[in-house]
Amino acid sequence: MAKSGKKDNKKKKEGGAGSPTIQNRKARHDYHIESTLECGIRLIGSEVKAIREGLVSIAEGYARVDEKTSELWLHDVHIGEYGPARGSMERHSPYRKRKLLAQKREIRKLGIETRSPGTTLVPLRMYFNDRGWAKILIGVARGKQKGDRREASKQRDHQREIDRAMTRKKIG
Fold first, then answer.
1. Which of 2, 92, 126, 163 is the most buried if burial means most Cβ atoms within 10 Å?
2. Model pTM score
């Protein structure tokens, strides 16, 4: 049986392996991450394009639960302007606050966890899932003291030495 000349008009899914993953490496250095939650983000078109190009900085960002409306908001995350959209009506403000999409019970739980002093919500990673939706991983974080950071660095170095010794032993 011969193949028909019809083309498959299904749109190729974007996201997943080809899209950038923006990490907040500073967060794991400065905070103890107690728990994490994956949220969706409400974005406009030019923001999505800018994220796909990697024009994002989440290091200064944080999230807050609005107690009155039970909504989760992302603050101080810089999403740069997408070049071709500069002249259009769909320009966005790089530092505007963005709504995070999560279930009500998860938002309530985060609100309760962040009421204690020294606890905050920090963005850990921004990425596109397999369906092409922009997602952000936020963590409930407690700040580290200077001594805690030094201890964590020492433990990392110690573990690295152990791993090196084990690989030398396997090779030799």
1. 126
2. 0.72
Q: What angle do CA 111, 42, 12 make, to 5 degrees?
A: 130
User: 108 Cβ partners below 8 Å, 6+ apart?
Assistant: 70
Q: Which domains does the chain have, with CATH numbers?
A: 19-144 (2.40.280.10)
| Closest of 120, 115, 78, 127 to residue 98, by C-alpha | 78
* Model confidence pLDDT, tens digit, residues 119-163: 999 999 999 989 989 999 999 998 877 777 788 778 888 888 888
Do residues 39 and 72 touch, judged by C-beta distance below 8 A? yes
- 63 DSSP β-pair partners: 74, 121
Alpha-carbon dihedral angle through residues 55, 61, 65, 70, given to the nearest 10 degrees: -10
